[in-house]
Amino acid sequence: MTPILLGLIAHIIGDFWLQSDNIIVLKRKGQFKGYFLHWLYIFLPVFALFLFFNLKIAIFFAFSLSLLHILVDICKTFIKNKFNLDSPLSKLYLFLIDQIIHVLLIIILYETIFPADFAFATQRIDLLKNSISTHKILLYIFMYSLATLPSSFLISKILNLVNSNFKNYTKTTVTKYLGIIERILIMTLFAFDIYTIIVAIIMAKTYVRYKYYSDNNFLNYFLIGTLSSSFLAIIYGITIKYSSIIVNLFRYI
């Protein structure tokens, strides 16, 4: 399970945190520079995290995963341009399928590349031998990472799918990061059964936006965005709350 979680964390770093809007534009245009930079930003975090095992695993896994990642992105861009898949529904499907394929690639590579080396190296990086295991620490990191930009991308595509008028309410950098902070707070509070503060956060957010409720489009935008963000945060909070059970279920992975 440790290599898979490390791969997922590295994927979030490379595919969301390090991939700038400029790189996305270059990739859409099919320019080599965009794909090369994206490949590099996938390779580096995978390589850095897998150095926990050994240099051979880090180099081979990082190169294999980053190369396959770029091939998937090239195919996605080709299909999108070939069939003119620019509708909100098509973009949502492409995003979800793309992410599912990347996750499956991490699992498949783990199962096929150096399984014996992984098993041996995993024993050497058992960070804590008491109540908190390495798997739980990595699961926490993964869930909190998932609450950041990956969730923001998913919510924005859901909003565009529900109503194209929502594109008029473009998120600023400040509102984007406020949404991330809100999800992190809600998932943490839910994990520790502090539900009253969750209600207070949502009520405070509702009060601040009150003056805009005369605009029906904005009201729908606000409700759908808030409910989607809160739902994801609660799912992440449940995962953290029951992390011990989840780790035990997947301890043989």
Question: What would you say this structure looks like, in words?
Answer:
The protein has 253 residues and is an all-alpha fold. It has two domains: 2-125, no CATH class; 149-243. The protein is 79% helix and 0% strand. It is built from twelve helices and no strands. The protein has helices at 2-17, 21-28, 32-50, 55-82, 88-112, 115-124, 134-146, 149-162, 173-191, 195-208, 216-241, 243-249. Helix 1 (2-17) runs parallel beside helix 7 (134-146). It is globular and about 60 Å long. The termini are close together. Mean pLDDT is 87; it is low at 127-131.
Proportion of beta-strand residues: under 5%
- Look at the structure and give the mean pLDDT: 87
Helix content bin: over 70%
Largest sheet: none
Order of helices and strands: HHHHHHHHHHHH
Structural class: mainly alpha
Radius of gyration based on Cα positions: 20 Å
- Described by the principal axes of the CA atoms, the overall outline is globular
Helix count from the secondary structure assignment: 12
Q: Separation of termini?
A: 5 Å
Low-confidence runs of at least 5 consecutive residues: 127-131
- Domain count, please report it: 2
Total beta-strand segments: 0
